Every structure is written in structure tokens, then in C-alpha cells.
Amino acid sequence: MPAESQMKPTMTIQGVKSRRWRDRIVEMAQHTRQAADVLGQASTDAKNATLTRMARLLETRADEIVAANTRDIEIATKRGIESRLLERLRFDHDKVTARVNALRAIAHLPDPLAEEETVFTGDGLTVKKRRVPIGVIGMIYEARPHVTVNAGALCVKAGNAVLLKGGSEALRCNRLLGALWQEALEGAGLPASAIQVIASSDRRVVRRLLALDELVDLIIPRGGPQLIRAVAGGTRIPVIKHSQGICHVYVDAQADPGKACAIVLDSKTYAPSVCNATETVLVHRDIAPAFLPGLGEALRAAGVEVRGCERTWALLPWAVPATEGDWDTEHLDLVLGVRIVDTLDEALAHIARYGSRHTDAIVSEDSDCVERFVREVDSGVVLSNASTMFNDGSRLGMGAEIGISADKIHARGPMGLRELTCQKWVIEGDGHVFAQPARTAQC
Amino acid sequence: MPAESQMKPTMTIQGVKSRRWRDRIVEMAQHTRQAADVLGQASTDAKNATLTRMARLLETRADEIVAANTRDIEIATKRGIESRLLERLRFDHDKVTARVNALRAIAHLPDPLAEEETVFTGDGLTVKKRRVPIGVIGMIYEARPHVTVNAGALCVKAGNAVLLKGGSEALRCNRLLGALWQEALEGAGLPASAIQVIASSDRRVVRRLLALDELVDLIIPRGGPQLIRAVAGGTRIPVIKHSQGICHVYVDAQADPGKACAIVLDSKTYAPSVCNATETVLVHRDIAPAFLPGLGEALRAAGVEVRGCERTWALLPWAVPATEGDWDTEHLDLVLGVRIVDTLDEALAHIARYGSRHTDAIVSEDSDCVERFVREVDSGVVLSNASTMFNDGSRLGMGAEIGISADKIHARGPMGLRELTCQKWVIEGDGHVFAQPARTAQC
Predict the structure, then answer these.
(1) What's the fold here for domain B247-393?
(2) pTM for this entry
(3) CA–CA gap between residue B51 and residue B56 (Å, rounded)
(4) A423 CB near a chain B CB, below 8 Å?
């Protein structure tokens, strides 16, 4: 680890001198790499101080942040941004306050790096696993300024440094948030370059970042399938994909109709533009005649367009006929597919075929059905008798999440502090060797 | 999950009908995908029975296996294979017996899928994490028939299916081992296609496999830097790299000379062709005059060529001068770099600059130095007072390892059963929704 005096040049972003973006991004990544070495050894107090300072900055500079976001929205609107993207871009006073609370919640969580477990002892050898940071993380995401806050907070607390490349629509707000992060880091005595916002709308910047496999340890892309495919196919750096959610609620024959109706309504309407919003409801045929008309009215009252299978029309004549394409589309809008199924098996087969292995729920009072659903649905998060909205770090004791992993390695589902670390093996011997003593008799 | 009758066609490899390799590999992967669904739900008994049947088959067919390997070696020798690769290719009776023991050890380990932990409870919600298989794993490796046994055993026990693409030098032996795996699986009532050996020397087969991101969940490449780069840069599938080890032993000023000599000798000579064999020894200047001459004699007696820094020559005049290139070369042979350093800091800086973050050891009786080394060396496995040979699954209670991860996500260091699984979140509610009751009052 370099001595403190040697770290100085990386303490400020002014150290980045290159004028061409190609070079500038490499220089930024080098500074982030050096900052990661410092962050990995930083005290819990210094990391928490960064988070609470950032919370305070969000409070005192809230008007400025919201103004930058408003300007971003104006420009995006002029360019004809889609309404659902606009909703994701919005960062109003309420959303700033929510981030302030999240920052303080994360500061109160235990430091994930304190953990060490003994996994094996034998023949005088002690084998431990110690939790360590990942290093340098590159985050690539669309719009959503709140990700700039969450990702910075979780990465720093877990001892990582991070390069943040948000959507060009959010340029002004993200640039300001990046400056505030650096102020918070420096105030806490940590290198400012531990959190760097790449404020560029040049797409080549991302390609350049993806080529830096000597400097970056992990890429986390959050966005639509096109972004995810481009990132995963364009780098040698490990990638944990945060992709679309085609999520389901299955209403079993043994469901409690009141709970089922509330859960479907909540899963669809609470936040339609998030990835764990539900896109399709599967209803067992035995409960459909008694259940669907009431659900239909509630959905209609909430402004939800229902796209139903043929058997659904018989019960909800006003429903729009669903096409095959509806079952594998992430609407991110007040549109809901409804399909009547004959059996739990049919529901499981539908989810296996059309789902994205993200978030799926069953509503049932039958514990056997619940256990089969939980066991056989191959999704990162499987719920029983709860809204798909609960795939949410802040409700699961994580403070916030950096995103929801759609991969099947490292971490599935919401990624928080622990998921931004890895483990190293520590083996303690007392002169232990493999060979027989005769082999090392010369010593 | 398909009913048993529907699974029939995938139970035998005869199901693969395509004659062109391009199509054949896709068909194999589809069968593996179906087998993975069965394996993920298979009983511990059936999985263990597969392993013990394979152990018995290795015993009864050992002559045949060794004969196939001998034929592979003959052909490889005619083609002028390097001697160190030849050593990795060898699969003699002793090595077969070692695999029989490993299979039985893995069968005796607990099933990693039995694990479930409650991570959060609040407001009547219970949040659990349940260990689940990864799914379909594609393993790409050079020579080494024993990997065909280890990888099959660990994947099956962890509930995964696996496609094994070994080196073309090991074609005959691997093809036979694949047939035995399928016999073992069928004997235990599991789908034969859960372990499939891709017996082809056509390089396009690997490219085709890497394109199957809809069917394969994880690629594990084991081999030299060129193979690793080609695999990591050529796929959208998550990759956990098993790459080269440039491993170090640092002999501290406070080292016990007897332990240090035995550890260096063992780390270099016990198995020079494995990735965790040591390539460089760093010796503190205070202990060098008393320690190095004795170590030098022991190394010389063991046939090790020493490549030393300038200060090393003064103590070992017969040492070959080390070049800059020696410090970052994985010799995999009886060649050892020796460098005298002034301080622990200098040793740490050398390891950070030239090491491959794989396996590094300190020999010291000073607990402060040990703790600093363990904390600051950023390698998957860090040892104190033990040979780097102990980065070995069989000595760490894992039965065997599928390889040693050089990545910083999912798993670092040796990967065993647990590292071949992931976790899914299981959230249990009782009608839980996010919105206020008024929002769902229609229900």
C-alpha cells in the first residue's frame, strides 16, 4: 500500500489531465484502482463518515440537485424521451429525502469486511475465510440518478472504489452528485477518486471502459436487454447482469381471495416502471370464476389495462385479447397479462417458458403448493403471499440495493453490501509441507 | 419439471442425432439443460450413488483407462508435446486410485443444497436464502484427464449438469471417462446427459459452445493465459477464470530457518507443474546471509535451477542471474527466482507488481508481520508458515476442487461443492403489500 504522501495525487479529480476521453477514462480508472487499495484498508468509521456527510450534502444542496434534474428532464422531454423512462429519470425532493434515509441506514449496517469464519482445521492447520472487497467496480446504467447515490454508498461501505457511468439523460444531475460524493470522501479523509462519475454522453467511453480488464474487477450493467447484451458480449471483465424482470403472481386454487387481490394490485400498480413489477397473473381455474371479476374491477379502477387469455374474456368481457408476445414482454407500464391455468404444473411451465428468472410469487394457503412453487421456480427471488415489490433491498434489511442480479453466479436477486464483497482463504500452519520429512531432510 | 416419461429421450447420449458438430453441440447442450432440471431436484442418495458407482467403475476398468491414456501420450509425444504438458496429461494407476479416493470423499461430504438460512424477519415477513445449483456448467480445460473425474463429481453432487471440453491431447481417455460417467449416472437412475464429454478436437466447437448463452449458465476455463483470454473475450455467459499462478514465498527476518527451508523446497518441488507451485522466493536481507546458503544447497540437491537477483549471487555464486522477465513468468518447472528484499513493504510491493493474485505465503514467527501480509496481499489464498501446496481442495476438506478461481467474484481460490452453487431468496408473507390499505381497498 502506498504511503499517505504518495496517495496525494489521486486525492483530487484534478489529477486527471488528459483532454481526450480515450485517455481520460484510463487515467480515471488508474486513480480508482489506487483509491480501491486505500478503501480496502479504510476504517469503518471513515467509510460511515463518508455516507453521513453525503446524506447531509443531499439535504443542504437538495434544491440544486432537483434543479439539475429538472434541467435534465426538460432536455430529455424536448428530445422525446418515452414517458416510462421519464419516470425513472425523475429525482424530486421526495426521492432525494428517500436517499438521505438510505444513506443513514447503510451507515448503520455492520461493516461486511469484519467477517471471518474458520472453515476447516486438521493436522495443526487452521483454514479461514475472510471477507474482502472486490476492488474496482464499473457501473453502467440508464437514467436513474438515485443509482448514483446507492451505488456509491454500497461500494464505499464494502471497501470498493467505483466508476459510475449513468445515462446521458441524467448528465447534469449525476455530475453534481459525483461532485458531492467527492466532497464527502475528502471530508472523511478518503481519496476522492474512490467514486467517480463518468460524465460523458459519448458511447465510445463505455467501450473503452470495458477494455480495461487490468484495472476493473467487475462490471455491473443495469438496463434493458440491448444494453446488457452489448456489455456482456464486449468485455473480458466479469459481469453481473441486472436485466429485465418478467415477473408473475400465481393465484392458486387455495388462495385467500382478499390477499390475492391486494397482492396482484400492489405488484402491478405500486411502481409499474421498476423491474420487479408484475407483468402476468396466472389464475387457477377453480378460483377464477369467484376471484377474477372482483380483481378485474379493482384493476380497472386503478387504470390497469388487462390483456387476457381466451378463458379470461369469458369472465372479463372488457379485457383486451392477449397475444403470444404479451407473455414475454416487460411492459413497465399499467398493462397486465392474465391467464387462467388448469394446474400448478401449468403455471410452473408458463413461468419457466416466459419468465426471466427474476421475481415470482405464489398466493396460496396450501403449504405443499407453496413449497413446490418455491422449490421449482428458478428465480432469484421467490415469494409466497407477498407482493413482488418486496424484492427491494430497503425492505430486506439491506438499506438499499445496487441492483437486482439476473445472473446465477456470485449473487442472485438484490445485491447489497455483502454481495459487493468476496472471500479470501487464510491458511495458518506451523511449518506445514506436503512431502514426507525425508524429502526436506536437507534443510 | 417434465414428467419422467418425457425425460426418457435425454436419458441416453444416443438421443444426439445431428451429424454436423455445429448442430450436435447445440443438441448436447439442450439435453444437458433438461438434465440440469432433474439434477437440481435429485435426492442426495441418487447423487452419491452416481459417485460411488463411478469410483467402482474406475477401479474395475482401470487398465482400460490407463491404456487409453497411454495411447493419448504416445500420439502427443509423436506430435512433440512439451514435457510439462506431458506430465499434466499422465493418468496412471496411482492417479486413477487418487480419483477413486476423491470420489468417495466427495460422496461423504454433506449435500450443499440442504442449506437454508433466515436472513431477515420483520413486520411478519420471513426472508430466507436457500442454496440452489447454478444449472448448466461448461468446463473448458487443457489435457488433465483427472479434471474429467473431479468436475463431473463436484457438478453432480452440487446438483448441476456439465459439458466437459478437455484438451484434444486427452481425447481417448476423456471419451472413455465420459462413457463411464454416463454408465454411473444411469445406474443411479439419473439422466446420462448430466455429464457429457465433448470429444472433438475441432476448435470451432468451443466457439459454438460459448455462443449458447440461453443454455449454459457458467463457463469455467482452466488453462494458460491465451486460453483464458480467448474464452473470457468470446462469450456473454458468465466466466470464472482459472488462470496461471505466479506464487511467492516470503521468508521474513523473523522466520524459523528450518520451517522456511522445508516450505520453500516443498512449494517448488512437490509438484512443479501445478498452478500453486511457487515461482519466486523473497528473502528479508537480515536473514539472507544465514539462511540462503543452506536453502541453496537443498534446492541444488533437488535439481532446482535458481535465478537470483544481484544480492543473491553474492551468497549463491552459482545462481543464474534473474532477468526482469523471470519475476512474472510461470515456469511450471524446477526453476525458482530468488530475490533479497530490504523490508516487508518491498516484498508486498513485489507481489503486488509481479504476482497473479493466486497463492502467496509468508514464513515468520512475528504475528504482526503475518497479519499485515495476510491483510495486504490481495490473493485468493494467503498462507502463513505453510507450503503453497496447501491450496488444494483435498487438504481443505473439499474432497477435490474443480479448479482454483483467479477471479474476484463468486469464489476465489479453490472451488468445491459450495462454490458450484448459488443462493435464491425465499420471502414468506401473509398478504404483505407495499401500498397503504386504502390503495387496495377495492379488493
Answers:
(1) Aldehyde Dehydrogenase; Chain A, domain 2 (3.40.309)
(2) 0.91
(3) 9
(4) yes
